[in-house]
Amino acid sequence: MPAIPLTRDELEFVxxxxxxxxxxxxxxxxxxxxxxxxxxxxxDCDRFPELYRYQKNKCKEAGYPxxxxxxxxxxxxxxxxxxxxxxxxxxxxxxKKHIAGAMxxxxxxxxxxxxxxxxxxxxxxxxxxxxxFACYYNGIQExxxxxxxxxxxxxxxxxxxxxxxxxxxxxxxxxxxxxxxxAA
Length: 184
Ligand SMILES: [Zn+2]
Known about the structure:
The chain has 184 residues and is an alpha/beta fold. The chain has a single domain, classed as Beta-carbonic Anhydrase, Chain A (3-Layer(aba) Sandwich), CATH 3.40.1050. Helix content is 43%, strand content 17%. It has six helices and six strands. The protein has a six-stranded mixed sheet with strand order 1-6-5-4-2-3, sandwiched between helices. Bound molecules: zinc ion. Zinc ion (ZN) binds next to α4.
């Protein structure tokens, strides 16, 4: 199935995130990826292949072995937050357990947490793109507290047919702008 294009409102929100420095295009992979990574992503049969291919090619370009330990439940990192609308039957606990297990079993210290939009799991739960970013942010905070020494690479992939749109998410910047406003 082809990706559903982003709506005008969603595109405006994405543009705002780019303008204020929350989103930036991914460049080359640094050596954080060298020892492998736990890849927490949505298993979407139509979208996952392009996400994985991208990770794989970037590792290859950088000359690193491809050690991608896959955790790919519906919604991916959107399941992590305890208060996620997708956490209806203990998914938050289960995904955290599997991430921790993968890190321990495979001696991996890097987590790549990548959500995509539009994500069918998020849409089914009635989430907007703004709510999805907020839910993702909460999940990353919880993950970082559980693994203070882990390097968590925060990414999203936006399905815009005219361009390949994977971004690094600057969580500090997101917090500065959106969480302060939310708390005010
Ligand atoms: Zn999805």
